[in-house]
Amino acid sequence: MVRAMSSQSDIAPAGGSTSGIPVTAPQTDAHFSIDTAGKTPWLTLHGRWTTMHIGAVDGALRDLELPASGDIEIDLSDVEALDTAGAWLVHRTELAW
Questions:
Q1: Among 19-28, 38-47, 59-68, 88-97, which stretch is predicted with the lowest mean pLDDT?
Q2: Residue 78 in contact with residue 6, Cβ under 8 Å?
């Protein structure tokens, strides 16, 4: 299950500003953290999941060894940007369990 979480305060209106204050997103590469302490593994994605920023996580996601429970929670709330290449990695990871 992919769970996309975001608060409205994280979303800038068209034009990229709120109350005249420019909104700029940090330029960070894609990375993730994993919590396997609970019943269902929880994978949290961070940064920019775009073609230019996902190179380092592709292999790491393939190498993940999680319990074969068949379920995984994927949290996208800390993703700064997502394109089709990043979406494919999320989808492929979900299908792996």
A1: 19-28
A2: no
Query: Pairing between strand 17-18 and 21-22?
Result: antiparallel
Residues 6 or more apart whose CB falls under 8 angstroms from that of 45 comprise 30, 31, 32, 74, 75, 76, 78, 79, 90
Read off φ and ψ for residue 34, nearest 5 degrees. Answer: -135, 140
User: pLDDT tens across 1-55, in order?
Assistant: 555 444 333 333 334 434 445 444 455 789 999 998 888 889 999 999 999 989 8
- Mapped to the 3 state alphabet, what secondary structure does the chain carry? CEECCCCHHHCCCCCCEECCEECCCCCCECEEEEECCCCCCEEEEEEEECCCCCHHHHHHHHHCCCCCCCCCEEEEEEEEEECHHHHHHHHHHHHCC
